[in-house]
Specification:
This protein is of the alpha/beta class. The chain has five domains: 194 residues, P-loop containing nucleotide triphosphate hydrolases (Rossmann fold, 3-Layer(aba) Sandwich), CATH 3.40.50.300; 136 residues, 3-Layer(aba) Sandwich (Rossmann fold), CATH 3.40.50.300; 98 residues, Arc Repressor Mutant, subunit A; 80 residues; 75 residues, Winged helix-like DNA-binding domain superfamily/Winged helix DNA-binding domain (Arc Repressor Mutant, subunit A). Helices cover 46% and strands 16% of the residues. The strands form five sheets. It has a seven-stranded parallel sheet with strand order 3-4-2-5-6-1-7, sandwiched between helices. Strands 8-13-12-9-11-10 form a six-stranded parallel sheet, sandwiched between helices. The chain has a three-stranded antiparallel sheet with strand order 14-19-15. Helix 14 packs across helix 16, helix 18 packs across helix 19 and helix 24 crosses helix 26. The longest helix is centred in the C-terminal third of the chain and has 30 residues. About 1% of the residues have low confidence.
Length: 646
């Protein structure tokens, strides 16, 4: 095996490793031991498998949940002269076949795949023929039902262990509680894994939370104070565009980034931000995983995240170069209600799971005791419409059924469409007079999506159908007609997919088998939201200490920089006077003492380590406090000038 540090120097220009990197690389690369690496965002996780992959003979299999991350890493490795290949979705069979052949015969060092790819027999068959040096599982918390980004396909990764039992596995993540770490090791069939865990503390990062009725003005202020690169997180795609437009109007170069925009535009916006052509990227929480941009000195959350795990990971994208950086979360009281509406009220309860499962079987007319291993074409929108089901909760319920191995969905289902109105308002009015049957859909679009005249926007068929009081099919037909008549541009793709029933239909008995898991998952989500709300609201404990304790790390030393610590510092004189009053009353209640004797008593008390912080009082403070206590008639002076309780 080549020397790891010489590889790091040759390809990355590093002359030393970050904390724990060397130990992790040696364990998985030299000792060939299964390894769990829990490193903070920006802690250099990628090198922990890339260097062993380069140093050893064969090819490393890297499982990653994000196509964008695969592309970034393979492009970066290729630029360095390292042969790497990725298998994104949508590749024709012949091309996939050729790429897998390259992995076997082309001396490649790394193969990046999504966990879903491992469900294809052609991929597993070819991996059997490869000389696999190691198996790297990135974002490994996704394997755990207790993790914050659970992905059912991660549960199939253990099949690589069966194919290549001698190849070491390295699981990497930035955020995992002890419970999640235990499940990672179990689900990957790891053999006595070595666990390397760095502290969650980010000493260069300042956590600040502000409540304000005007979040956008506070955002502008924050961006004005910080002149380096920044990320702004919002909840939905529409907000990314609105906030980016606002910032540009205020002279701050910004761009939106979300999954609904065309791939080329998304890549362009990211590249301009990465290369500092623009300063601010405004994205949903899908943005940033795997992004290693060092000069981000501000991350702003304009919405409250659904968990401390997600907040910590997103905030941690600031200050990766080790320089001082800030994580700012701004909220108003409505955001707390929104948090419940978006994440708590849509959590599927056991009754929801039973009801949706029953409707699924009815929809596909599956007889009792049958249906196992049958696959059906599945149109999610039509299913919801047939039974008047709420789309978000139904979607989450189907995910719960998949998570618990009752059904399998071949891909995330959604109907995606983008619309731009091309004609002027006058021309549109004239057209609708002549075509009254299209008026409801057209006007609903205009009322629902502000700015759809100026730019192409992603639309929701379900929402339009609901507001226009018509079916999804009618919305689609109306849009096709408007597009044909050159009134709009209508780009649409149907991602409705197929569903496979994995067990026979046994109605309540089927769900009762998984009932405890459904309840536990619902409870976990509620606990995560509750913990996030408590973190935002509390003003007594240092933000860093709160985060460390959440992840099971002992912490007692305040950071001295977060909003809570600063507030306490600003309030210290007032708190000190109050503390001094009480201390003087306690001492005087035990004995009658002169002012000099009281000063000496406090000085002696100050020598005690546990009281040192509270006892640092000047003589002038003591004398002034005695006068205050006299004025309040809590103490009095004796004839010998000694103080006593009145």
């Amino acid at each position: 095996m080549q020397d790891p540090l010489s590889i790091a120097t040759q390809y990355w220009g590093f002359t030393s490793f970050r904390p724990l990197q060397k130990d992790i690389i040696n364990t998985v690369g030299i000792l060939k031991k299964d390894t769990i690496a829990l490193l903070p965002t920006g802690g250099g996780k990628s090198l922990c498998y890339q260097i062993p992959a380069i140093a050893n003979e064969g090819i490393a299999i890297v499982i990653s949940p994000l196509i964008a991350l695969m592309k970034d890493q393979t492009d970066s490795l290729k630029e360095k002269g390292i042969k790497a290949i990725a298998l994104p979705s949508g590749i024709p069979y012949k091309e996939l076949d050729a790429l897998l052949d390259n992995c076997i015969y082309g001396n490649y060092k790394m193969l990046y795949v999504s966990p879903e790819r491992l469900q294809q027999e052609i991929v597993l068959t070819r991996i059997k023929q490869m000389n696999v040096s190691l198996i790297a599982v990135d974002e490994a918390h996704c394997i755990s039902q207790w993790g914050h980004d659970f992905r059912p396909a991660y549960r199939e990764i253990f099949r690589l262990r069966e194919i290549h039992p001698a190849s070491p596995i390295i699981a990497l993540t930035a955020t995992a509680t002890p419970k999640v770490l235990k499940e990672i090791a179990s689900e990957l069939h790891m053999k006595d894994p070595e666990c390397f865990q760095s502290s969650y503390e980010r000493p260069n990062l300042v956590y600040t939370i502000r409540q304000t009725p005007n979040k956008r003005e506070l955002l502008i202020k924050g961006l004005t104070q910080h002149q380096e690169s920044a990320i702004v997180y919002v909840r939905n795609r529409k907000s990314t565009v609105e906030i980016a437009e606002l910032l540009n109007q205020r002279g701050i170069k910004a761009a939106a980034y979300h999954g609904g925009m065309p791939q080329d535009q998304r890549n362009k916006n990211y590249a301009q931000w990465r290369d500092d052509v623009i300063r601010v990227i405004v994205g949903t929480n899908a943005f940033g995983m795997g992004i290693d941009k060092g000069n981000v000195d501000l991350v702003v959350h304009l919405e409250i995240p659904d968990s401390i795990e997600n907040y910590f990971q997103e905030a941690g994208r600031a200050g990766r170069n080790g320089q001082p950086a800030k994580a700012l979360l701004v909220y108003n009281q409505n955001d707390m209600l929104r948090l419940d509406n978006q994440f708590v009220k849509i959590i599927p309860q056991l009754a929801d799971v039973k009801w949706i499962y029953k409707k699924l079987n009815a929809y596909f007319q599956i007889p009792y005791g049958e249906g196992a291993d049958t696959t059906h074409s599945f149109n999610f929108s039509s299913f919801c419409a047939a039974y008047q089901l709420p789309t978000v909760k139904t979607y989450n319920t189907l995910l719960s059924l998949e998570r618990n191995s009752i059904i399998h969905l071949t891909k995330v289902f959604s109907k995606r469409a983008r619309v731009l109105f091309k004609q002027s308002e006058m021309a549109l009015t004239y057209y609708l007079v002549k075509n009254p049957g299209l008026e409801k859909v057209a006007k609903t679009l205009l009322r629902t999506y502000g700015g759809i005249h100026e730019q192409e926007m992603a639309i929701d068929h379900n929402l339009i159908a609901s507001k226009a009081n018509c079916s999804i099919a009618q919305v689609h037909q109306a849009l096709l007609r408007l597009d044909t008549d050159d009134i709009i541009t209508y780009e649409h793709q149907s991602f409705d997919t197929s569903i496979t029933f994995l067990v026979p239909r046994e109605d309540e008995h089927t769900i009762n088998v998984i009932a405890r898991y459904v309840k536990a998952q619902a409870q976990k989500k509620q606990e995560q939201v509750a913990a996030m709300k408590a973190f935002v609201h509390q003003q007594q404990q240092c933000r860093t200490i709160s985060i460390l304790k959440y992840f099971g790390e002992d912490a007692t030393t305040p950071c001295g920089r977060c909003d809570v610590c600063i507030s306490e510092l600003n309030d210290q004189p007032k708190r000190a006077v109050k503390s001094l009053e009480q201390l003087l009353l306690d001492i005087i209640s035990k004995d009658q003492l002169s002012s000099k004797e009281l000063i000496m008593s406090l000085a002696n008390l100050n020598k005690s380590a546990e009281n040192r912080k509270a006892m640092a009082f000047r003589e002038s403070d003591i004398l002034q406090t005695l006068k205050t206590l006299l004025a309040k008639e809590k103490i009095t002076l004796t004839t010998s000038n000694r103080y006593k309780i009145k």
